Amino acid sequence: MMAQQMDAVFAGFGGQGVLFAGKVAAMAGLIAGREVSWLPSYGPEMRGGTANCSVTLSDDPIGSPLVLTPNVLVAMNQPSFVRFVPEVMDGGLVIFDETLVSPEGALPELTFGLPATKMVEDAGLAGLANMVLVGALWEKSGFCTEAELLSAVDKCVSASRQALVQKNKQAIMLGAGAARDL
Amino acid sequence: MAADEQMSRTEEKAVFQRPHALLPVVTNYCPGCTHGIVERLVAEVIDELDVEGRTIGIAPVGCAVTSYDFFGCDMIEAAHGRAPAVATGVKRSLPDHVVFAYQGDGDLASIGMAETVHAATRGENITIIFINNAIYGMTGGQMAPTSLPNQVTQTSPYGRDLDTAGYPIRVCELLSTLDGVAYLERVCVDGPKAVRAAKKAIKRAFQNQVDGVGYSLVEVVSTCPTNWKMTPQEAFAWMRENMLPYYPLGVYRDVQADGFANAAEAAFARAQDCPMASGKAGR
Amino acid sequence: MTEKVLMKGNEAIAEAALRAGCRHFFGYPITPQTELAAYMARKLPKMGGTYLQAESEIAAINMLYGASAAGVRAMTSSSSPGISLKTEGISYMAGADLPGVIVNVQRGGPGLGSIQPSQSDYFQATRAMGHGDFYLPVYAPSTVQEMADLTYVAFDVADGYRTPVVILADGMLGQMMEPVVMPDAADPASLPAKPWAASGHAGARPHNVINSLHLDSEKLYQDNVRRFQTYERIKRDEVRVETYRIEDADVVVAAFGAAARIARSAVNAAREEGIRAGLFRPITLWPYPARALQECRARAVLTVELNMGQMVEDVRLALEGATPVSFFGKCGGIIPTPDEVLDQIRGIAEGLGE
Fold it and tell me: Are B122 and B178 within 8 A, CB to CB?
């Protein structure tokens, strides 16, 4: 679906890595040679509250980097899910962490939940639920190639933390694999 | 005539002359004002340390505002109270140069108090010459942060009222608590002996900078006959009687006399019981 | 390095400043420019430079004044309330003909306002960066790439004309990441000599004095006249503007910075509906690209800003009543949507059709 423009919102609690997840997606777009923008929420709402970022991947120059009508939502907590699902464009894709979100009401057709937090704890990858969801997003949308996505992880994690690079990639593959069966 | 001139020239020994670092211009100071004496002392010290070519002075706002025309070294005119911040910018750009600020009491202790305290606590390796004459001179005699209790000024016409205007600030005492400070001395220029002592303090404050000892400030208790509405003689007498008891002369901080090489060593010794500050704790 | 990297706008400004030869940065914490100062705090100590967190914005601008007077390339950054505090020092810099780069990553106002993006300091930047008769060049980047490029240019313009220069960004541009290619680092040896600086005369010249005080009225008058001659050269040589789909446009949208991004999307949407719309984007807000606007030959101009209507006054001044001008804007951190701007364009186009 993602040969077209991707207007994504990544949302969750501060500390869950939603801004980093968005950055990996934006970096993958950059590596793919596309126009990209990444815009975080900032300020008091980051301190213990919700955090989110807008990510756009496009083949044309990007106007407003603020995504108001996403065609991709990655939600890592209940408040974000409740807030952003109604904004999702018709035919849009929603990926969420089933461990922390209980979906209710009418949902977009392409809504997929993974128990990301539980999966990473079981796999010894605690703290990387964000990357599980990025993997699921990639599997369901194909917004870039596998090589571009993994290369994005290399670019986004500092070279001095090589162990973390591998764990991030494992988490992505874990998410992608799980999403394949959904 | 020609022969006499020739003879006197060969036998001439200069015992008193204009310091090179003081330009041959007429100052705009009033009779009995001590700015002229103090600026001359600063210039003599610059000459004696042979640093004029690498000295940058910062002029204040106040009566000494045009001192950028008097000193022969490169000069920068600062906004009111901001001389320590300007001096910081210069010193951080030219760390091997000698940087001094010359400020009055309104400039240094009122509008510029934040800049004063923070340059001091950062331990900027600069020299501050502080003229305390207990009044705003340039603007015509308003109450200063160092005006004495009950002192009559244009804006304390019934005398400085402690209930409404609060208390004067003793700058040396205030700054003496700060770890970044290497040297603080309060002097005056009341007579030759005092002038010699003042020069010694000013030289120390410049020498400290040359030697990298740290932030040094010399406060000169001064006069303002014009705005005190006194003759020069009366002004000096008033200063002796009223200013000196309130602002006692002396050394208020001298890390070298305390046995330390510089301000940093003194601060380190003082912080030994704090694991974080003494570097004994992990970061 | 010609590699395309993903960078926040705030960090792009910082990196470009370093590449322009800036080694002295003086700041004070304020949202949303924080990443700029943090970047400098990480990089400068390792480059032999100075990062100094001042006790206030007032102290920071005066440290910039001192560093600039001493002859080095230096910078400060802040956001709206902090810029108000800096204006005293900026006026002194202008009066003493000191170069220097001042970054304003704008937030909403007045007062403490908000920390969300805004363009409400347009008046301040172009009209009143302090007391006295003076202007300074104001650059309004619209992309992260321009955050870098215009910062780099700002140092050259500052040194070339001996004037402080403002980068007028906003919270959106500061916080967002986009791909950016950094300009090559300037060769330190190629930076302009500053024989006027107060850097120690070494016995080789009369003393230099950096000063804005002239008690003689005639001298102060002549000093201002000379400075305004410099402004005329800046107006002649340094105007920058981007136009987009403007050639046959009936409705021209005038917008700068972040607002221009939204306006551009709206212009494209209008074109898809058959409305001949175009975008006029000033890159220098002072000097204002008035002539370029006059040459647009639009039948109507819509000004879009993240404020209550400020640049619109310059648009009206430039057009001198020859073209109807309307305004659409939001403030307080609310970002207008392209659809809202499109609605405005539609309304104007319909009016023209009647």
Answer: no
Decide if pLDDT at A46 tops 60: no
Query: What local confidence, expressed as pLDDT, does residue A42 receive?
Result: 78
Mutation target to probe the C interface, by most C beta carbons within 10 A, among A10, A31, A42 is A42
Q: Does C262 touch chain A (CB under 8 A)?
A: yes
* Out of C6, C32, C265, closest to residue A30 by CB: C6
Picking from B22, B32, B89, B95, the residue whose alpha carbon sits closest to that of residue B232 is: B32
C175, C177, C338 ranked by CB distance to A42: nearest:
C175
Q: In chain B, positions 70-89, which contact chain C (CB-CB < 8 Å)?
A: 71-79, 82, 85-89
- Predicted pLDDT at B282: 60
Residues of B in Cβ contact (< 8 Å) with C48: none
Q: Tell me which residue of C180, C177, C192, C103 sits closest to C149, measured CA to CA.
A: C180
> Where does CATH 3.40.50.920 sit in chain C?
242-353
SS3 for chain A is: CCCCCEEEEEEEECCCCHHHHHHHHHHHHHHCCCEEEEEECCCHHHCCCEEEEEEEEECCCCCCCCCCCCCEEEECCHHHHHHHHHHCCCCCEEEEECCCCCCCCCCCCEEEEECHHHHHHHCCCCCCHHHHHHHHHHHHHCCCCHHHHHHHHHHHCCHHHHHHHHHHHHHHHHHHHHHHCC
**Do the Cβ atoms of A119 and A174 come closer than 8 Å?**
yes
**Residue C290 · residue C311 · CB < 8 Å:** no
Per-residue pLDDT of C30-67, as tens digits, reads 999 999 999 999 999 999 999 999 999 999 999 999 99
Residue ranges of chain C that CATH labels 3.40.50.970: 4-237
Q: Which domains does chain A have, with CATH numbers?
A: 6-180 (3.40.920.10)
Check residue A3 and give its pLDDT.
Answer: 57
Give C153-181 pLDDT, tens digit per residue.
999 999 999 999 999 999 999 999 999 99
d(CA B215, CA B224): 27
pTM of the model as a whole:
0.94
Residue C3 touches partner A, C-beta closer than 8 Å: no
pLDDT in tens, B30-66: 999 999 999 999 999 999 999 999 999 999 999 999 9
pLDDT of residue B1: 45
Element (H, E) at C242: strand C241-244
Answer yes or no: is pLDDT of B2 > 70.
no
d(CA C11, CA C24): 16
Buried b (16+ CB within 10 A) or exposed e, C206-229: ebbbbbbbeeeeeebeebeeebee
Q: Which fold has domain C242-353?
A: Rossmann fold (3.40.50)
Q: Which residues of A touch C42 (CB under 8 A)?
A: none
| Angle at CA of residue A94, ends A90 and A97, nearest 5° | 160
Pairwise CB contact (< 8 Å): C261 & A65: yes
Chains in contact with chain B (at least 3 beta-carbon pairs closer than 8 A) = C
A88-136 pLDDT, tens digit per residue, is 999 999 999 999 999 988 899 999 999 999 999 999 999 999 999 999 9
Which sign, positive or negative, has the C-alpha torsion C54, C57, C59, C61? positive
At the fourth CATH level, the homologous superfamily of domain C4-237 is Thiamin diphosphate (ThDP)-binding fold, Pyr/PP domains (3.40.50.970)
Which pLDDT value is given to residue C310? 98
At C74-107, the pLDDT tens digits run 999 999 999 999 999 999 999 999 999 999 999 9
Report the pLDDT value the prediction gives residue B236, as an integer from 0 to 100.
Answer: 98
What domains sit in chain B, N to C, each tagged with a CATH number?
26-270 (3.40.50.970)
Query: Nearest-CA residue of chain B relative to C63?
Result: B89
